[in-house]
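Subject: design request, 226 residues
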């Protein structure tokens, strides 16, 4: 799962006027993978290339006990949610941020081969949709585009910024699906991932500054936007 992880961010921004700004929700949606990248760079987690390990990508995510356990994800969700809630002085915003963080593990469960854990133990979980491109690709597109359209319908503002955001997301996803297979060291791969995440997240912050929820009207917009 790549851009599909940002679907809950769009959905939270659409359903909850008090949710954090879209850029913050985009960080929440991929917080687990940001952590994974840092853990790989620090030598605490690892991955390797194994061509053919799944039909859609060659990544063997064989050691992710901290970032991609359900317990670890829950801890990230709790800490991030509390930080956002305290920072914005809004428990509702913090709750939505935590929910978006937690969604990451659940979406990964759908597509990963068995490489996820409940609490970092030996039992590995994953339903393996990456071995079924005819299911995984439409599912990811449906989740992402459906949530994006929901966000557009629930918010007001110029169309240009969100259309640029979704175009960049789709371009990156197309490259991931149909471009050359990843090569190089684990460090090079996670640095590439960080670069892609940074571009999309920066665009999401831009979009969040140009749109507001339709439930926010008149002068109230300035006081409630996050």
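Subject: RE: design request

Done. Sequence follows.
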């Amino acid at each position: 799962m790549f851009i599909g992880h940002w679907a809950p961010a769009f959905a939270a921004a659409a359903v909850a006027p008090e949710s954090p700004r879209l850029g913050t929700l985009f960080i929440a949606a991929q917080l687990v993978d940001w952590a994974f990248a840092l853990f790989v760079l620090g030598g605490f987690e690892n991955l390797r290339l194994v061509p053919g390990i799944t039909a859609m990508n060659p990544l063997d995510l064989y050691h992710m006990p901290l970032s991609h356990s359900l317990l670890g994800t829950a801890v990230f969700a709790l800490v991030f949610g509390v930080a956002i809630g305290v920072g914005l002085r809004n428990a509702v915003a913090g709750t939505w941020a935590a929910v978006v963080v937690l969604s990451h593990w659940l979406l990964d469960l759908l597509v990963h081969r068995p490489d996820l854990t409940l609490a970092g133990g030996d039992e590995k979980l994953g339903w393996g949709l990456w071995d079924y491109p005819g299911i995984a690709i439409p599912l990811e597109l449906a989740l992402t585009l459906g949530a994006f359209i929901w966000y557009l319908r629930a918010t007001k503002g110029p169309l240009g910024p969100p259309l640029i955001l979704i175009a960049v997301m789709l371009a990156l996803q197309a490259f991931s699906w149909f471009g050359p297979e990843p090569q190089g060291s684990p460090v090079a791969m996670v640095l590439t991932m960080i670069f892609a995440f940074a571009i999309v997240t920066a665009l999401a912050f831009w979009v969040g500054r140009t749109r507001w929820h339709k439930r926010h009207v008149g002068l109230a917009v300035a006081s409630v936007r996050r």
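The longest strand covers residues 59-63.
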